[in-house]
Automatic annotation (TrEMBL):
Origin species: Phocaeicola vulgatus
The keyword Transmembrane is assigned to this record: no
Protein name listed in UniProt: DUF4976 domain-containing protein
UniProt signal peptide: 1-21
Keywords assigned: Hydrolase, Signal
PTM annotation, UniProt: The conversion to 3-oxoalanine (also known as C-formylglycine, FGly), of a serine or cysteine residue in prokaryotes and of a cysteine residue in eukaryotes, is critical for catalytic activity.
Molecular functions (GO terms): arylsulfatase activity
Residues covered by the Sulfatase N-terminal domain: 30-359
SUPFAM superfamilies: Alkaline phosphatase-like
Family: Belongs to the sulfatase family.
InterPro entries to which the protein is assigned, alphabetical: Alkaline_phosphatase_core_sf (IPR017850), Sulfatase (IPR050738), Sulfatase_N (IPR000917)
Positions bearing 3-oxoalanine (Ser): S78
Length: 464
């Protein structure tokens, strides 16, 4: 099976073309832990200005490393964002561009499977003999499909294969690899997944490893254990949430619950750091923290109360900055300088080529990502994106395209040309996207619109 996998991977690289990444500055490739929160806003962390929710461990990553001020998620919702992350392709080229469902071998609905032959970041790590693990939410294919983690470079998986099951923190089951583990709604899933992540670190302490840890906090439900709530109970003026028709259950103290969930996630990051230090791995491990898309407003959460989207307009499912600009902090002791803030424009699809350069591996040429390793190390020439492009198929269809000079075109109701309308902003002079200036700058809007065709190919499953 291992030999078969190597042959398939080599064929995928040859069919897509490949590039040999430059030599990294490190003598030995480090461990990599990529932590991705679920629906966490850029303004929910202390290092990005949050004043009411405590996040000292995540803030510590920024203090000990680098904070990106203009980092973009893969999409404005979960499954396509994760696809962009692990394949290096933006929404104009990604195989998965929405949360559409397909039945797994158990007859339940899971997200669209990631196709066979897609080269993933885990595949890249495997070419350099890394042990690879994914713990948390997957969202790119259910059991019995070609999209499960084990068919895309991951040696180990534990968590939610399907996203809709992740709306409950007390699920009926999780999956370990493709085996369904029955839980009967008795266990808080985040704790189980954190334990598996810590075990993965412990079991692979003597090998180079890549851990993709994707917990579901703070996605709705706003559900947190009683002892974790005590830190914030009585701190905020509350309006009880009575539940909703889309399945989110009631919460008497939604503000306290949201704050407690974010802090609980931060404490989990602290436990991962503690584990690394105890195993003597801390100085040789890259730690990344980010979020899959903008903040949500579901299950009783009011993002405006905490300024969860920071100074930006929009949230999850929007293509305004609040829906796609995400926190991104990264540390690498002895390599990334401490306390650095960068305005380099980067995105989820840049992770794969960054890893390729880091571990000196071949990477496909048919990707959209650009390595940001020169920004991290301060060595070499940092290439830049010509544009950042998105498309989204819900709510009438949306597109956006932004160029490095800050001009951004947002297209709405794209699915019906008779209703399509456009907005133009400059995010440097108007970061909150409050004033549509398309009438003042029609030539700029026309130029951006003309660029869109070169940024996308049709996708049979996801189309306007």
């Amino acid at each position: 099976m291992k030999n078969t996998r190597k042959i398939l991977f080599s064929a995928a690289l040859l069919s897509s073309g490949l590039t040999m990444a430059r030599t990294t500055t490190a003598e030995k490739s480090p461990n990599v832990i990529y932590i991705m929160a679920d629906d966490l806003g850029i303004g929910d962390l202390g290092c990005y200005g949050q004043r009411q929710i405590k996040t000292p461990n995540i803030d510590g990553i920024a203090q000990n490393g680098m904070k990106f001020m203009q980092h973009y998620s893969g999409s404005t919702v979960s499954a396509p964002s994760r696809c962009a992350l692990i394949t290096g392709k933006h929404m104009g080229h990604a195989a998965i561009r929405g949360n559409a469902k397909v039945a797994g071998s158990d007859g339940l609905l899971y997200e669209t499977p990631l196709p066979a032959g897609e080269v993933t970041v885990a595949d890249i790590f495997k070419t350099k003999n890394y042990v690879t693990g994914c713990v948390g939410k997957w969202g790119m294919g259910g059991p019995g499909t070609e999209g499960v983690p084990g068919k895309h470079g991951f040696d180990y998986f534990y968590g939610y294969l399907g996203q809709r099951f992740a709306h409950s923190y007390y699920p009926e089951f999780l999956h370990e690899n493709e085996q369904k583990i029955m839980l009967d709604g008795k266990y808080y899933s985040h704790d189980l997944m954190l334990e598996k992540a810590l075990n993965f670190i412990d079991e692979n302490a003597q090998k180079p490893f890549f851990l993709y840890f994707s917990p579901t906090i703070p996605h709705a439900d706003l559900d947190i254990m009683g002892e974790a709530m005590t830190e914030y109970e009585g701190e905020f003026c509350e309006t009880p949430f009575g539940g909703s028709r889309d399945g989110y259950k009631s919460q008497q103290n939604p503000r306290a619950a949201y704050a407690a969930m974010v802090t609980y996630l931060d404490k989990s990051v602290g436990l991962i750091i503690k584990e690394l230090k105890e195993k003597g791995l801390y100085d040789h491990t890259i730690i990344v923290f980010t979020s899959d898309n903008g903040v949500h407003s579901e299950g009783g959460h009011d993002p405006s109360y905490f300024d969860s989207n920071g100074p930006f307009r929009g949230q999850k499912r929007d293509l305004y900055e609040g829906g796609i600009r995400t926190p991104f902090v990264i540390q690498w002791p002895g390599v990334i300088p401490q306390g650095v803030v960068t305005n380099h424009i980067s995105a989820f699809w840049d992770f794969l080529p960054t890893i390729g350069e880091l571990v000196q591996a071949d990477i496909p040429q048919n990707i959209d990502g650009i390595s940001y390793l020169p920004t991290l190390t301060g060595k070499g020439i940092q290439k830049k994106h010509d544009c950042i492009y998105y498309e989204f198929f819900e709510f009438g269809g949306k597109q956006s395209i932004m160029t490095p000079d800050g001009w951004k075109l947002v297209r709405l109701e794209v699915s019906d040309p008779s209703k399509t309308y456009e907005e133009l902003y400059n995010i440097y002079t108007d970061p909150a996207e409050t004033t549509n200036v398309i009438k003042q700058y029609p030539d700029v809007a026309r130029k951006l619109k003309n660029m869109i065709g070169g940024q996308r190919v049709e996708n049979a499953r996801f189309h306007f």
